[in-house]
Prior knowledge:
This protein is mostly beta strands. The chain is 1% helix and 46% strand. It has four domains: 59-176, Carboxypeptidase-like, regulatory domain (Immunoglobulin-like), CATH 2.60.40; 178-192 and 205-275, Immunoglobulin-like, CATH 2.60.40.1120; 282-373, Sandwich (Immunoglobulin-like), CATH 2.60.40; 377-472, Immunoglobulin-like (Sandwich).
Amino acid sequence: MGVSGLTAFGPAGSFLPDRPDGSRQRFGDYEGGPNFGTAIVTGPDLRTEDILFRLLAPSALHGRIVDQNGEPIESVMVQLFRTTIVWGRRTTYYSGYRNTNDLGEYRFGPLPPATYYLLVTGRPWYTASTQGDDALALLTYLPVFYPATSDGRAASPIRLAPGSDFAADLTLITQPASRLTIAIATPEDRIPKMPRSAETMARPPVTFARIDVRMEGPDGAIGWERVVNSSTRAELDGIPPGPYRIRVSANDPAKPLYAEESVKVAPGDNALEITLSPPPAVTGKLRMEGLDSAVPRGTYVALDNTSENRYIRRAVAADGSFQFDNLPPGQYMPVLASSANALRLRGIAVNGVQVTDVWIDIHQPAQLELTAVAVAGNISGLVYLGDEPQGSVLVLMVPKEKPLNPYGYQAYQTDSDGSFDFTGVTSGDYLLFAVRNGADFEYANPAVVKPFLAAATSVHLEMHQSANIRLDLK
C-alpha cells in the first residue's frame, strides 16, 4: 500500500555496503523511493489480469585512475555518492567505495538508475615504505571529485540511465602533503582516581580511539580522507592541505566518548588538541492530538541519520516521555511509528524552538517536543487519466496556508486501482494534485511544489470528517 506522511520508521530492505570506517550504508533502493509502495487491489469489478511490473535494467559505473604521467594508480579509494529523495527532500549521501586494482581500474555495479558523484583519495604506493621526515613520506595525491576538481561543491553529477555503463576516468596530481598531530584527552572528571600506592604508575591511555578525517562532499555529503585507529596521540602524515572535520570516538568502560573539531590543515606541520566528552543527553515528550488516553503501547520515536547510516529508536512511555542515551552527535531526522495506531508527526520543537526542516542538529543536550495526530479525518479518492484509474502515481496533499514545517507536506503512491487514502488529517483547507513521475519529485520542497498548486484540487475538512475526491492526472 502507499505510505502517506511520516508514519513509517524509514527506509528498509536496502543492501548496505561497507564504509571506509567499517560501518555500513544504504546502497540501492526501490526506484519509487524508500517510503512508497503500491498495493495490488483485487475485487469483482477490478482488472487484475494485465498488471504490468516494470523492471529497470541495472546500471554500472567504471573507470581508470592515473597519475599526472598517465601511469595507473593502484589501491586508491574511489568513493561513490548517490542523490535520491529521502522523506520528500533531495539528499546526497555516501554510498560505498572501491579500491583500484593494479591497472588503476574500479567498477561499481549493478547500480539503480540515479544521480551519482565520485571522489578519489589516496597516497602514492611508495609512501607506505617511508616514514618520518623522508621527503617521499610527505607526498600525497590531491583529492579529486569527478571530473577534475578538489571542491565537492563544484563536482559534476553523473546521471545513470537504465542499462547504462558510464566511464569516468580521473587523474590524480602528486603534491607536497602536510602532517597533522592529534592529541586526544578525556574529561578530567572521568579520570579514575588511583590508590596512593599506585600513584607512581602511569594512568592507562585511551586504548582505542577511531579518528575519522572527513571532508565535505557534494551537496553537503560526507567524504573520507582516511580513518585510523589510535590511542592518545596520532601523527597523520600525507594529508593534503585543506579544510577537514575531525571526529574522534572512543570506547569508555562507563560510557562512549566523542569529539568533533573543524580544522584547516596548512602546509607543513599542524597540531590539534581534542577533548572527548560524553554524548549529548536527548530527552523528549510526545503530545498526541485527538487522543485523551495514554500514549498507545508500541509507540516509538526514531532518530535517523541517513548520511552516516545511524537509525536509533526508543520506546515512548505512557506519559509521552522518551530518552536517547549514548547518541553520537550529528544530524538526525525524527520519525514516529506505532504498532497500534496510525500516527502522523505534525511538528517538532527543539529546546522550545519550532523547527522548519526535517533535520535537527544534535551536538549539545536537547529537549525534543513532538506533536502527533492520532485521531483525525481522512481524504481518499482515485486518480484518473481520462477514464482509466492510474496506479503507482504520486499524490501530494499540501495545506492551503504554507505549513510551518516540512511535515505539512504529505505524499501517497496510489495503489493498483488508482486509490489513495490520507489518514490523520486535521481540520483545515488542503490542496491535492498528482504527478506521474514521483520517484524524483521533491514533494517536501515548497519551491518544487508551488507551480502545481494553481491547478490543484481544493478540499476543506472538519475534524473527524472524511472526504472522497477524484484527481485527474495532467
